[in-house]
Amino acid sequence: MRIPRSVSSLLKIAASLLTLLFVARPFTANGDPPLDNNHPAIRAAIAAQDEVTDEWMKQPEVLGTSVGVTSGGTPALTVYIDRDATNAGQVIRNLPQSVRGIGVDIHLTDKFRAMKGNPHNQTSHTALQTPPIQLGTSGGWSKDLANGYCCGGTLGSLVSIGGVQYILSNYHVFESDIVSGGNNTTAQTGDPIIQPGLIDVNCNANNAQTVATLVKKSSLPTSNVDCSVGKVVSGMVRTDGAILEIGTISNTTVGAFINQAVKKSGRTTGLTHSSVSGLNATVSVTYDNECAGGTAFTKTFTGQIVIANRGSSFLNSGDSGSLMVEDVATNPHAVGLLFAGSSTDAIANPIGQVLSFLGATMVGQ
Predict the structure, then answer these.
(1) Domains contained in the chain, CATH given
(2) Quick check: 172 and 220 in contact, CB under 8 A?
(3) Cα dist. 82→15, 57, 70, 203, 251 in Å?
(4) N vs C: which end of the chain shows fewer Cβ within 10 Å?
(5) Helix H or strand E segment including 42
(6) pTM of the shown model
(7) How many helices (H) and strands (E) does the chain have?
(8) Would you place residue 4 in the very low, low, confident or very high pLDDT band (cuts 50, 70, 90)?
(9) What is the dihedral of CA 27, 32, 34, 35, to 10 degrees?
């Protein structure tokens, strides 16, 4: 999510996530193959999910579905129900206990929202850095100010496109101002990308530094990823792609699997750790047309990664654009690009889909 900040200094949260000669298949700590999208039990659960998701999501109380596991480790079809919906109880009672022999697991949550956000008690992840900067820091579009608020998110990681380095973040952090309404402007290629974001410099871009220039990719609303990039200004970003509190990462990626340990470095919550709780998620996310503006569109994403986010402890408003990596000490592999969530679950685009859309590779070791 990005975070809005009132120009009058009242802060509010905007309502609305190695290849050498061969690739070895990872195994879990007990020696069993991971519960990833290639596992037979997960594939069976996905088949059941695909059979019912479209019909179930016609009900506004159903926010999404994914494939997860029960407390006993058995693959299950998870259904995310809006806990604030007046008819939630009846919807739950009408759902079957199983589909194709796959158990149905009900998960009550609040609505998923894109994660721009508001500043809290942050230090290193919101401070103006001395160039070249590390990523996992506050940043965003320099003109992300409208309707009495300013917005921002996280400058997530470094990617390479055609041998040129770019900062990777979300569409809704860099590009989502698509109407001239509240600020008489829209996001355009060549606009400055700043660090820190407006929300951490009292909504005054003169108190920030330009670290990149926007290159519009218009990933939304048509594609299945929420991503955007800014071309690095020479000398302003570490060329090794180091991320605050994580360091350098691998230049190759890894797929998600159930119970995979992951971490991220973001503007609002800093360095946090969690685990993957769902695969192949179908979720709907509502996007604004500018900072603190009206609804532009609601996008249904498929094939997404779900991460445990109890009490928004892993991902909160302002962490949008953070890169999710495996939770290892040295040169972790990228897993996903975080962009949305609720107070119980975070959502990430699989990093492979993001890189494919951009024609990019990770910058790393």
Answers:
(1) 1-21+112-365 (2.40.10.10), 40-111 (3.30.300)
(2) yes
(3) 15, 12, 20, 34, 38
(4) C
(5) helix 40-56
(6) 0.89
(7) 4, 21
(8) low
(9) 180
